Amino acid sequence: MSGRASNNVPPSLLRIWQREEEDRRLSASRMDSAKAIVCHDTHANGGWKMEQVGVRKPGEGELLVEMVASGICHTDAMIGGIPGGAAPIAFYPRVLGHEGSGYVKEVGKGVTVAQPGDPVLLSFAFCNTCDICKAGHYSNCIDFNDINFGGPYRDFTLASKSGEPEIGGQFFGQSSFANLSIVRQCSVVNAKNLVKDKKELQLFAPLGCGIQTGSGTVINAAKATSSDVILIMGLGGVGLSAIMGAKIQG
Ligand SMILES: [Zn+2]
Ligand SMILES: [Zn+2]
Q1: CA atoms of 246 and 25, how far apart (whole Å)
Q2: ipTM score over 0.85, yes or no
Q3: Residue 145 CA: which ligand is closest?
Q4: Does domain 31-208 have CATH number 3.90.180.10?
Q5: How far is the CA of 172 from the centre of ligand 2 (A)?
Q6: How confident is the model over 193-249, as pLDDT tens digits?
Q7: What are the structural domain ranges in the chain?
Q8: Spatial distance between the Cα atoms of 30 and 32, rounded to a whole number of angstroms
Q9: Which helix (H) or strand (E) covers residue 199, if one does?
């Protein structure tokens, strides 16, 4: 009620104001404070802004992850470059980012993949129930587009506002362009016994997309061996990872 004069106000209106104040207080207490790159519009229109946000608590099958690093992939620029409403997956405001790594801060109900404090690497999300997922081909999940690009799954709120989250999260199940973000359980790889310190966890963040795309193409899709000759066009994160994959294959 601060800022509102309460003298000579009818009791019924006072009760409404008190209820509003209480709602705001409760919503704020359900939120963690974070910083995120919020896309309000396309990058070309200057719509990407670093802002103070609130993050809701993790629900069933979700984790709250404190990011230590995030790669930047062309898909972030591509999705955040489509004018709002031009396609079902083009909506704002939202938080992008899909090569995150970090430490688990909280877990929601039913989460078994990691516990608070565990280091985690993040990748794409999938339904785990369709026939394609059941066959182990998660990246070809029948609902891949809806789960990874769709929504909006509203997880964040601007710190200047209170109330229900209005900013979309869970891009690729993770929205890693935030130092705290809601992550789907299926996007999480527990790196507890894989990384020795924070620096190593930061270094491995791009495993979530660029590294596995490049090296996976050579190792798993092409199954290239030392008797093959391969051509890699372009040496960004994906191309360089393809070279590393080729070196591993001999
Ligand atoms: Zn990517
Ligand atoms: Zn699926």
Answers
A1: 55
A2: yes
A3: 2
A4: yes
A5: 14
A6: 999 999 999 999 999 999 999 999 999 999 999 999 999 999 998 999 999 999 999
A7: 1-30, 31-208, 209-250
A8: 7
A9: helix 198-203
